[in-house]
């Protein structure tokens, strides 16, 4: 696609610490629009989404944190994503914590179902985010989007109705895992989700793991939603995230994934999530995420400017 829609989603209600609401502003300050325009793309900034009030949802829950606020974001982002998916622009959702994917992924899956094409999802994250409302220990709802997207029960409160266009678990790929709760491991096995942890990446190389998934998406003529969490990357080079887990992917591994996605021509929507500028070191994580996005849209290794991180 040559037309891009930037959408701010300053969500922090799903996370365990404050700061992610500054994420969209950090991406703008780091020059995301300018970098994409330099690649010849037409970029429109849609501003920041405003959440619904979701007054039908309890304001306080003994287990689930900020449930009403997360439901409000989910509903607003679901509508925005569904509308953008039907248009000519490819959306980039600038987060915001990973709870934003409750709305974005559901909206794109609904459009895919209406178009008669399968929705595929590449989840680039240290965490599998497949906790349910029952299994979550922390109560932080940024750990639930994959479970919701797969249509697991108990999430009707988020949209105020049942999600009738779930993503098939067979169309999911979780890449970069290194922090998965026991109930999540059981669900991944039960549902047959493709999941690659860091040991698999170490032993096989990241390209060999990603290629079969992209080939499967291409054969099925699927739409591909990519959800990129800052903690996919090793915290030594991407510190601005509240859920740091040592041992993430390297600078080159992350760029290789983005370059392969560009070469595939399959990506139809993108989340950039969990950037917490309050935890950053002079903006270096925001700049890295912008550079990774540029790689997804065609910047080559030899085009990359010299930059100190």
UniProtKB/TrEMBL annotation:
The keyword Cell membrane does not apply. It catalyses: L-arginine + H2O = urea + L-ornithine. Pfam families: Arginase. Binds 2 manganese ions per subunit. It comes from the Bacteria. Its EC number is 3.5.3.1. Keywords: Arginine metabolism, Hydrolase, Manganese, Metal-binding. InterPro entries: Arginase, Ureohydrolase, Ureohydrolase_dom_sf, Ureohydrolase_Mn_BS. CDD domains: Arginase. One of its GO terms (molecular function) is arginase activity. The keyword Hydrolase applies. Pathway: Nitrogen metabolism; urea cycle; L-ornithine and urea from L-arginine: step 1/1. Belongs to the arginase family. This is Arginase. The gene is rocF.
